[in-house]
Design brief:
single chain, 229 residues, alpha/beta, six-stranded parallel β-sheet, three-stranded parallel β-sheet, 44% helix, globular
Amino acid sequence: MIDMHVHILPGVDDGSVSEVMTHDMLRRAREAGVTSIICTPHVYDPRDQDFNRKPFLRTREIAHRYGLALSMGCEFNYRATLKAGTAQLTNFCLGSTRCLLLEFGNEYLMPGWEGVVSELMDNGYLPIIAHPERYLYIQRDFGIAQAMSDLGCEMQVDAGGLLARPLSAERKTARRLLREGLVSYVASDAHRPEHYDTFERAYRTFRGEWPRENRLSAALRVLREERKA
């Protein structure tokens, strides 16, 4: 099982605060059934990713001890897309794919988002919208999520969103996205070891609806086959 949204690199953002915590997160991920992790530290400025390389290489070494494969990516804030040229974007994609995990603002949708997304796709990138269930404008108007999907974006819902507080807008939105088939990925968005408790519980609860195939999985599979060849 791939967990494609994780803040596991020690000391780089609001996720793991130490190598000890990273060990604990890797152990809990393995216990929860995860076999591959894509590290997605927050990137608010394109230069942030340069700082993340060294912690990633160290964390990848540790992950091998737990039988986990680690790839590099990031949670690419919409502001960073406006600063980076399209030629640079391969540095921010998930693993060696052309998939880009995009984080929009929680309260207000970026003006002209359709044009930004269309330009990304015109240049061969696949936008994946991070945790749309959190965005207030989608909670108020589900049609925005449908419009993003219709445009060609994929959706990544957090396990914590599916198990959020009963009757909360976040929970209702996450479950509606899953129910209506708009979710391509459920991820832990883990910042702490205990977040894998939530991930494991969400998988047990929604196993029958858990997304099985998506373009990221297909891209990673092709890359694995190419490496074997």
